[in-house]
């Protein structure tokens, strides 16, 4: 499957990238805190943008019979994100093999919205700050074929140190 049915990115896939996401109301609990489940789609967005920046989409890969499925996901929540905060999702490719790829993530507060302030506010000096790390994590994705069986990744998707 090294040619992935002829699809190729228009430029090399970057080993790291960042995107910014505004915490939406629907991603929060009644206290205005970003729900833990909201972070997982942001990580997918980070992975997707690495491909998109190289001129390729997941949809194109899947049409060519290349599917990446999550086989392991680990996250650690450090600080709360709040409604309307702007967060930066940092994604890095840190390893892999011919059939797997490992990403690491860091979600950092890029802008405080002030939405965390309620009646009486919060303890002075302990409020959210720009630069706070909200979450760190990692994911292992495996390449599978249309039947769900393990398959070799296209050469251009294998991390450079694993070729």
Characterization of the model:
This protein is mainly β and 163 residues long. The chain has two helices and five strands, in the order βααββββ. Strands 1-3-4-5-2 form a five-stranded antiparallel β-sheet. The longest helix is centred in the first third of the chain and has 15 residues, at 39-53. The protein starts with 15 loop residues before the first strand and ends in a 19-residue tail after the last strand.
How would you describe the oligomerization state of the chains in this entry? Answer: single chain
DSSP helical segment count? 2
Number of strands: 5
Give the helix/strand class. mainly beta
Radius of gyration over alpha carbons?
18 Å
Distance between the termini: 14 Å
* Order of strands in the sheet with most strands: 1-3-4-5-2
Please sum up the structure shown.
This protein is 13% helix and 33% strand. It has 163 residues and is mainly β.
Question: How is this fold's topology laid out?
Answer:
Layout: E1 16-22, H1 39-53, H2 58-63, E2 67-77, E3 86-96, E4 100-111, E5 133-144
Antiparallel strand pairs: 1-3, 2-5, 3-4, 4-5
State the main characteristics:
163 residues; mainly beta; five-stranded antiparallel β-sheet; 13% helix
């Amino acid at each position: 499957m090294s040619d992935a049915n002829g699809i190729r990115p228009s430029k090399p896939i970057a080993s790291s990238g960042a995107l910014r996401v505004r915490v939406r109301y629907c991603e929060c609990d009644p206290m205005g805190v970003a729900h833990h489940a909201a972070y997982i789609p942001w990580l997918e967005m980070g992975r997707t943008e690495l491909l998109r920046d190289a001129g390729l989409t997941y949809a194109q890969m899947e049409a060519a019979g290349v599917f990446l499925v999550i086989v392991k996901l680990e996250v650690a929540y450090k600080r709360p994100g709040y409604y309307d905060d702007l967060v930066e999702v940092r994604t890095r490719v840190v390893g892999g093999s011919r059939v797997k790829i490992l990403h690491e993530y860091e979600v950092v507060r890029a802008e405080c919205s002030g939405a965390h302030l309620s009646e009486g506010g919060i303890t002075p000096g302990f409020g959210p700050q720009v630069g706070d790390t909200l979450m760190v994590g990692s994911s292992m994705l495996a390449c599978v074929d249309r039947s769900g069986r393990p398959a070799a990744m296209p050469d251009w998707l294998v991390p450079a140190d694993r070729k």
